[in-house]
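haha ok so turns out i had the wrong file open the whole time. this is the CORRECT one, sorry everyone. sequence first:
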Amino acid sequence: MDIMYVSGSPRKNSNTDYLLEALRSLIGGIFYKLSDYYIEPCRACRDCRGMGKCIIEDDMQKLIIPELLKSDVIILGTPVYFNNVSSHMKKFIDRTYCLMGHLQNKMGGTIVVGRKYGAEGAITAINAFFLKHEMIPVNRGVLGFAFNTGDIKIDSDAIESTKGLGNRIVELGKKLGYQ
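then structure:
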């Protein structure tokens, strides 16, 4: 399976990245940290709908969209900001408008890390992204509780849930005919 991890965290060595990398160490794949790329916001021109290509020539179009199209599994990870996904993740989600009809039946996984409140909003936003693209959410998602760098390492529930997400991806991949 081709697996793509997308981190919406702007922090280096973030708690979100820790869980994404933990999952990647179990099932492999390629990692993209959105803050490392030049990505413009969607212009809402709607000229791209269904084309599989955005008219904005930036790193999203040149590097990330081709990988999304190639991937069988897309794992989105974000910290919780104001009860929702980060601005980096939201910009990414909006820019996939051009991919309507092109991500069908790919598997989607969710990893969200927050301090206390708002995680449900972030999980809902990511799962709505999967459903809008007619993707298959593999489970409800992983929720980690952390604030300071490294706090996630003591959240044993999040670490176990991350392993469970990996197991579910492998299980569902087999049922869908991936090796």
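The mean pLDDT is 95.
again sry for the mixup
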